[in-house]
Amino acid sequence: MDDLIYLDNSATSFPKPQVVYDFMKEFYQSHGVSPGRSGFDKALEAENIVHGTRKLLTGLFNGTDPNRLTFCYNATDALNRIIMGMLSRGDHVISTNLEHNSVLRPLNHLERDGGVEVTWIPFDSKGYVDPDDIEKAFRKNTRLVIVNHSSNIIGTVQPVGEIGRRCRKAGIFFAVDASQSAGAVPIDVQAMCIDLLAFTGHKCLMGPTGIGGAYVGEEVPVRCTIFGGTGVRSAQPFHLDEFPYRMEAGTLNTVGISGLNAGVKWVLEQGMDRVHDHEIALWDKLRKGVQAVDGVTTYCADDTGDQNPVLSLNIRGFEAGDVGTMLDVDHGIAVRTGLQCAPRVHQQLGTDRIHGTVRFSVGPFNTEKEIDTAIGAVREIASLGK
Q1: Rounded to the nearest 10 degrees, what angle do helices 254-270 and 272-291 cross at?
Q2: Which domains does the chain have, with CATH numbers?
Q3: What pLDDT digit, counting tens, does each position of 76-116 carry?
Q4: SS in 3 state form for the chain?
Q5: What is the C-alpha separation between 203 and 233, in angstroms, rounded?
Q6: Is 204 a known active-site residue?
């Protein structure tokens, strides 16, 4: 429906800024050839967009070398390349109960099949991981700590800088899943001692689906886990060890990269803080509005500090999925229900036993009027359960 109220921006931001649609169309019509494969003008122009986007994102994350900003299909792809490229049999890895399946499943497979030990750190009652708890879990064979920067269920933003500094002091590599934070809150890989950062383009960076990537710090010995064409030194029988090729193979998603380029520029032009402040103000209005409704339970939604605009709730007497259907069919509001690909969060909250939560996630184009409508819809549904 044309008047849909879209509150599922944690899944993917929608709509995108108009400049993203326009630039992708213009780029693909004019420069939709393989970058870096040939010396003719259009191939060079396509490569300029690719490398320009590497530089743009490296600057956004305060990295040092644009060639170490590598492109993948999405954050899940990047996290798999990081995890599989860093861990070996006999290693110990520390992660948290906040993780998405893009971290949980690779680690579970390595624990079951690859001889890797995993320690899971819980979050506190407000939704934050204590760096002390992570440090206490360090062992002699701890190879990697990997932490979700911002939860896709409860929106809490973790103290990755403090965690990173403790990892750096202990000589342990530190990886961050920035799926929900890249483009929303500042990320400084140097100041935060982040060795490996995974991001996706289609959420807070306002790009399209199918594009994401990883930033790998200097001297981080991540192994190559994909092999194929690079467009250079084709006679070499083994995949190139240098960056960006160590983390890339085959023809890149150039139209996706062009859209990501336009999305990042839009975020920077608007001002990341300004966009975030707008979203958090709406989130706070939604939070306070639904918390005032009898029968509504919210999770780890205490204040606006260290928080992204994600709110999970349940309504007494209703399954989360049924609430989502009523919001959609009766009120024209799109949300996400269920376990949202992060089962350990729900296990700790106890919401796994009631089939998850109803998740509202605010984006830059949402309005106060839409939030008022959402609060009213929750109030109406809650009244039916009395």
Answers
A1: 80
A2: 5-15+271-384 (3.90.1150.10), 18-269 (3.40.640.10)
A3: 999 999 999 999 999 999 999 999 999 999 999 999 999 99
A4: CCCCEECECCCCCCCCCHHHHHHHHHHHHHHCCCCCCCCCHHHHHHHHHHHHHHHHHHHHCCCCCHHHEEEECCHHHHHHHHHHHHCCCCCEEEEECCCCHHHHHHHHHHHHHCCCEEEEECCCCCCCCCHHHHHHCCCCCEEEEEEECECCCCCEECCHHHHHHHHHHHCCEEEEECCCCECCECCCCCCCCCCEEEEECCCCCCCCCCCEEEEECCCCCCCCCCCCCCCCCCCCCCCCCCCCHHHCCCCCCHHHHHHHHHHHHHHHHHCHHHHHHHHHHHHHHHHHHHHCCCCEEECCCCCCCCECCEEEEEECCCCHHHHHHHHHHHHCEECEEECCCCHHHHHHHCHHHHCCEEEEECCCCCCHHHHHHHHHHHHHHHHHCC
A5: 35
A6: no
Residue 247 confidence (pLDDT) above 90: yes
Quick check: pTM over 0.85?
A: yes
The single residue of 193, 224, 300, 341 carrying the catalytic annotation is: 341
Nearest to 20 by CA among 61, 53, 54: 53
Mean pLDDT, range 298-321, rounded to an integer: 96
